Amino acid sequence: MGAEARMERSRMNGEGEMGDSHELISKSVSAMLSHQSPHGSFVASPDFGQYQYCWLRDGSFTAYALDVAGQTNAAADYHRWVARALAPLHRAMADAAALTGDPAALTGNPAVWHRLPPARFALDGTAVLDDWPNFQIDGYGAWLWSLREHLRLAGDDRLLAEVRDVVDNTWRYLDAVALDPCFDVWEENGDQVHTSTLACVHAGLTAAAELLGERRAADRAEEVRSFLFGLAAGRGRFPKSHSLADVDASTLWLCAPFGVVAADDPLMSATADAIKAELDLGGGIRRYAADTYYGGGAWPVLTASLGLYWLAAGDGQAARRYLAWIETKFDADGSLGEQFDGEFLHPDKYRQWVLHWGHPARELLWSHAMYVLLAVACGDSVGGPAGHPAS
Ligand code: BGC
Q: To bridge 343 with a disulfide, which of 14, 46, 322, 350 should be the other Cys (CB 3.0-4.6 Å)?
């Protein structure tokens, strides 16, 4: 039986019974709210052992989705948590900034990784001192962007005064390291400068320029944008990184949600077309063609990202097809996992990961967040999740 047929069978076996967007949006919002820690952080996955932390990347998309869903108090709690977590990292940011231009020191030497501003935190906001490939700058940009969006959507002027110093430290850190190699949004390829990381950095610098009136942040964002277009020049589309021409679905964020590149820019539409052509797995979207993590399945996060691109490009029908694929992946309890169908694509790799870390995350807050963003953008209503009236 081919991979497509086996995927179809798994769908017939019960996946995808849900399908009412209104109900699923409520379930997603409830999942995000119920897994927010009392500190304000969001656990990446409540059921997957390796994901018992809050990543700035996942958390910042989650806070944004909650703002869009009207849960602005929960988003504010997250932003206050980030500010408390980042406040003591002033020194780590300065240390990392001092190492710019020395990629071997930043990403080639696990002995220094625990001294760098982390990609993920314990739920109480303490930095985790281990040899995780920490030097990932995208989450810092995504945070500044989601904070600006929160202030815009919630009209919460007091919060900016509370977190201003941390915002200031963070954009200066991004300014220093913006074009240095770092680990990418998949926590890989530490010797490269990555397109989607730069999309996040651009968004963060632009947000800081608006929030603080810092001209330098706006100028640096423009330099990042020129660098991005330089990467695409001659290739006809945006590549995965400065030295890898591969297609990577995270490059969609250039268009949506970050708006660095317009949907109708020929470089952006060629990028989206290549993603559709190379990374479609039964209607969902994979990270990149050579991915074998849990068999390299299709991710709701990226399927929603392509849906958001199509909406920006004016094709609501295509966007709804991606929304519908995600809706087939909710289980009967309303959980939404990290990825699907990798066990059919690369069964051996899938099994290896299961032996190593157990089953892939069955509940991923970032998946819920991106589903809500796409569903709301498609015009589906949020309503109030049971027990959680909009704040
Ligand atoms: C992904 C990261 C993500 C983390 C937590 C990793 O497998 O590559 O992008 O932040 O899981 O969800």
A: 350
Q: Is 338 a catalytic residue?
A: yes
Mutate which of 58, 287, 288, 294 to test ligand 1's pocket (most atoms within 8 Å of Cβ)? 58
Task: Please give the radius of gyration of the chain, using alpha carbons only, rounded to the nearest integer.
Answer: 20
Span 310-358, pLDDT tens digits: 999 999 999 999 999 999 999 999 999 999 999 999 999 999 999 999 9
Question: Hey, is 93 helix, strand or coil?
Answer: helix
Q: Long-range contact list for 276-279, CB < 8 A, 24+ apart?
A: 276/306, 278/247, 279/247, 279/249
Is the CB of 185 inside a 6 Å radius of any atom of ligand 1? yes
Taking alpha carbons only, the member of 167, 156, 161 closest to residue 75 is 156
Closest CA to 77 of 173, 165, 156, 7: 156
372-388 pLDDT tens trace: 999 999 997 776 444 45
Is 44 touching ligand 1 by the criterion CB < 6 Å? yes
CA distance 145 to 245: 27
Residue 314 CA, chain-centre distance (Å), reads 23
Structure tokens at 68: 């869009």
